[in-house]
Amino acid sequence: MDFEKFKEKEISKKEALELFEDNENIFELFKFADSLRKEEVGDIVTYVVNRNINFTNICIGNCKFCAFRANEYDKHAYFLDIDEIVKRSVEAKKFGCTEVCIQGGLHPKIDTYYQAEILKAVHEATKPYGDIHIHAFSPMEVYFGAENAGLTIKEALKILKESGLNSMPGTAAEILDDEIRDELCPNKIKTGEWIYIIKEAHKMGIPTTSTIMYGHIEEYRHIVNHLFIIKEIQEETNGFTEFVPLSFMYKNAPIYREGRARAGATGIEDLKMFAISRIVFRGLIKNIQASWVKLGKKMVQVSLRCGANDVGGTLIEENISRSAGAEHGVYMSVEEIKDMIKRVGLIPKERTTLYKLL
User: What is the CB-side half-sphere exposure of residue 323 using CA atoms within 13 A?
Assistant: First the structure.
């Protein structure tokens, strides 16, 4: 296959689908994606020193891939109050974190005003130590909070931004196809709503990440459509900081246990995801992240030679993947991250959430 043509012209949906289906030319694909990565970002591989704060697992959602959620009165249900979120944020700042990522389940008592209180309290408490970047609230959480507060999405985003929301995770995307969503996450926002919230955030100057969760009930055509939706949004708004493929953690997922989903993506599919997204997003989204929580160290190292150029964060705690059966831990030290990158001949560099090199 002539991969060089993708340097001259944009890849089409049909060609992207052919690449996913092609098992003959995979090593040429990986090599080409690696050359694009080198062209776009050089040999620097970035990471962020951050802490995840999953503040509640109480959730009225019914996502079929989620093993994290709990009902309000379940034995293992928990809810961290604002003081505890603040305490963990200050600890993170003292530890050297530049970012806290704050997300939680859809707790019936949470609305936009409560989310705003969290933001204000964290900024206030971390300011004496130099403040911290707050990366918080997925489009689903924004939608849910706005609905509970009787606000429009625009009003909710305005309040969150004014209260100190610095950027948003582009999670809750899963697969941007309503046919898949109806089975995978029937209570979640529809594809059009996800797109609308993300675009509104970008218009307001709130940057976001973009994600995909694959390896469950979708087909390659759904993945390709998803990538092109992300591409079109970026062409319009330029508000995505990165693209993060999230491999489905199947072990404890209800949909897998019921025999309705496959046991996650294969290693080859993981690598194709990095390589093909590098080609699709060429010149639009420079940063493609390989998650060590989902993939483990060795697969991340291979991903860095197949189009990825970022390894995410130190995390410290990450309860959502762990609940779903992730086996790669919840914390990686800066030293381990650097070593993981150096050992594949690349250069580790710490970054901010918005990809400023430190």
Answer: 17
pLDDT band at 330 (very low <50, low <70, confident <90, very high): low
Q: Which of 304, 319, 327 is nearest to 37 (CA)?
A: 304
Report the DSSP beta bridge partners of residue 133: 99
The answer to whether the beta carbons of residues 121 and 102 sit under 8 Å apart is no
Tens-digit pLDDT profile for residues 283-322: 999 999 999 989 999 999 999 999 999 999 987 765 444 5
Please give the full DSSP string across 120-156, using - where no structure is assigned.
Answer: HHHHHHHGGGT--EEEE--HHHHHHHHHHHT--HHHH
C-alpha 77/C-alpha 165 separation (Å) is 26
Q: Mean pLDDT across the chain, nearest whole number?
A: 93
pLDDT for residue 331 is more than 80: no
Residue 150 C-beta-side C-alpha neighbours within 13 Å: 0
pTM for this predicted structure: 0.94
DSSP state of 328: S
Spatial separation of the C-alpha atoms in residues 268 and 62, rounded to whole Å: 30
**Strand duo 240-247 + 310-313: pairing:** unpaired
Contact by Cβ (8 Å): 272, 19: yes
Instruction: Tell the residue number behind the tokens 């992300």, with chain if given.
Output: 230
User: Is 295 in contact with 29 (CB distance < 8 Å)?
Assistant: no
At 167, the amino acid letter reads: S
* Separation between Cα atoms, residue 232 and residue 323, nearest integer Å: 33
313, 98 Cβ separation under 8 angstroms: no
Q: How does pLDDT run across 126-138, given as a tens digit for each residue? A: 999 998 999 999 9
Written as six digits, the tokens of 104 are 């939680």
**Which residue type sits at 66?**
C
| Distance (Å, whole) CA 17 – CA 89 | 43
* Angle at CA of residue 233, ends 281 and 162, nearest 5°: 120
